[in-house]
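Subject: Interface between my chains keeps coming out wrong

I've been trying for a while to get a sensible model of this assembly. When I model each chain on its own everything looks fine, but I need the whole thing in one frame so I can look at the contacts. Pasting all components below, labels as-is. Any help appreciated, I'm running out of ideas.
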Amino acid sequence: MTQKMNTEARREQITGAALVLLAERGSEGFNIADLAESVGLVPSAIYRHFEGREDVLDATLDVFRDRVYGLVEAARNEAEDPLQALELLLTRHARLIESGGAVPHIMASMSAPDRHAARPAKTQKIFTGYVARVERLVRDGQESGQVRSDIDSTSAALLFAGMIQPAALLRHAEGERFDIMAHAAGVWELFRRAVARD
Amino acid sequence: MTQKMNTEARREQITGAALVLLAERGSEGFNIADLAESVGLVPSAIYRHFEGREDVLDATLDVFRDRVYGLVEAARNEAEDPLQALELLLTRHARLIESGGAVPHIMASMSAPDRHAARPAKTQKIFTGYVARVERLVRDGQESGQVRSDIDSTSAALLFAGMIQPAALLRHAEGERFDIMAHAAGVWELFRRAVARD
DNA sequence: TGTACATCAGTGAACGCGCGTTCACTGATGTAC
DNA sequence: TGTACATCAGTGAACGCGCGTTCACTGATGTAC
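Reply #2:
Try treating it as a single job with all components included. I did that and got this:
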C-alpha cells in the first residue's frame, strides 16, 4: 500500500498534480485515473479527499488563483515602480509558461461551459480579478506620472492580459523552438511604447 | 422523416452548426446528439456524412480556417493601406465575437491535446498561419513607411493576435454588459501608438 | 513502555451512466426505359 | 407521361467502451489507559 498521508497534505499534493495535468492537456483531457497515478494512488483513493472530479477541479482552481494573484503581488512588491512591476509580471508569466505551467491554457480550458455552471463562472471571476489588479498597476503608473494619463486603463490592462496568451499557444505548437522569453521582451517593448509617457 | 438533402449540402449545414456549438461550449461540451438536433436530424444520421465525431471536428476546423483567413484577406483588399487593414481586421474580429462566433474560444478549446494528436496540430497550424498573415501586413506597413521600421514584426503580430483574446473571455463572462466594440477601439488606439511611425 | 481500540487513508472489484457508433430497415428521390 | 428500379439519406433500437463513482474490506497510524 502507498504511504498514508493525512487528508490536508494529500489534498495539496493532489491539487498540485492536477494543475500540472491541466496545463498539459486542458480540462477536457483531465481524468481521475491519470491524476491518481501521478500521485501514486489508485483512482478510488481520490474520493477519500474530494467529493468527485468537479470538486478536484474547483479546489485546483483555488490553487491556480492564489498562484496567479501571488505573481501580481510579488511583482508589485519587488519592483520599484508600477511600470517595472508590469514588466516583471510579464517576465514571470513567460517563465511560468516556459516551465510548463501554461496559465492561459488553463484559463481557456476551464472556462468552457458545461453542465456544472459553477466552474466557468469561477474561472471568469479569476480572470476579471486578474485584469482588475493589472488595471490597478496601470492607474498607479498614471498617478506616478510614468504612464500617459490620456489612455484608458482598462484597455491597457486587457492589452497586457492578451500579450502572453498567443505565446502560450505557440509554445505548445512549436515547443522549445519558440523562444518565449524573447517574445516577452519584444512584446513588452511595444507595450511600453504604447503606454509610457515618452 | 426530415427532408432529405444531398451529402454535400448536408455537410455544409452540419459543419456550420458545429461551429456555432463549438463557439458556445468548446470542444469539450460538443456532442453528436446536440449537433444532430441543431440541424433537425437524429444522431445516427450524422454518420451518413461523416466518419465520426473527430471527422466532424476536422471538417469544421476547415470551415473555421477559411473564415478566419477570409477575414484577413477581406481586410487587406478593402483597406487603403496596411495599418487601416489591421484596424479593419480587429473591428471585424470584434464584431464576429459580438455575434457569437467566439474565434479565440474555438481556437483554445480545439487545441487541447487528446488521443487524436491530429486536431491540436491542425489548430496550431491555423493559428501560426494567421499570425504569419498579420505579420505580413505589419511588414507591408513597414515598407510603405506607415509602421516603424525598428519594431519586430513577429512581436507586433503576436501582440495583435492577443488583443482580441481577453475580450472574448470577458464577453463570455459579462455578456451584453461588456462593450466589445468599445474595447476594440480602445485597444487599437494603444496598438497604433506602439507600432505607427511617430 | 506496552497493549487494545478507534480512526481513517488506501485498495480493488463492480456498477452504471453518457455518449459515440453500428446496423438492419424505411421510404423519398432521381433515373432508365 | 408513366412505371420499375436503384440509390441513398434518414431512422430507431441496441451495443459497448471509457470513465467517474461506490462500497466492503484492509491495514497502518495515532491515542487512551
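Reply #3:
Confirming on my end. Chain A touches chain B through 50 residues (CB under 8 Å).
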